[in-house]
């Protein structure tokens, strides 16, 4: 019988080849990008290509090898266990890192796709199997998970409660809603500040790494912020984003809620972190020490923090414009997925 085990070197080589493919302009990749966009209008070709590029930058042999190096030799030989993956679909390929982590660690995967992202991931997995046919025995796409040894499931706060109950008897990672925040110091140049537009508007703000809450220093001039992000005004041209902008604007006007409006983003003062689409909440802070303590108290709600200076926060921080470019070890919710899997091998 043919041996379907793979060494870590073979797995790295296959994912590296896949990374190269993601950066190509092949007809097959172009066709699947178009198909994904027809199915889900949030997945514009530009946004899908952005997601592909962000992933491809990590699928490089030395980068992959450095990532798994601390876990060798646990990663070889392969495990006979199966990891069930319940994927989200809020932005293109958001579940890819979980697939990569499980397969690179030597597990089989049983994948329940999101109905919002049901074309891109199957296509990439087909290509991965082309590059390394032995992966075929380790990858299953299913409508219903069964006979799995551990679970990684991503969903809303409501579905997370269901997941916690349903998967309580197996090792699991259950991810809930999180949001990202930005800390503005007040001395950023307009060029530096403009980069926050990527954190706000990449993927139309639908990701957990998108900034939904801004912290400005006391007496900060909002018009300066609006001027800096003006180059992102074309976001309003997307019909669904525009509908959300119009809806939230009308609610604020009817209710008499004080807000700022630049024609494509609404700013509203609010203590909450999770803002509606096309809205960013904001607060003013008096001193950075108190703000840091506040952010640490709310760590369970925060995916990452965007800022141009170092903060002593629990949540990871990224410089302005970089929230959507996580490294392989920038794990969602701060839970080391690779260590979790190997601890249950």
TrEMBL record:
InterPro entries reported in the protein's UniProt record: Ald_DH/histidinol_DH, CoA_reduct_LuxC
Any one Pfam family match given in the protein's UniProt record, by short name: LuxC
Keywords: NADP
Superkingdom of source: Bacteria
Keyword NADP among UniProt keywords: yes
Claim: NADP is one of the keywords in the record: yes
Protein known as: Acyl-CoA reductase
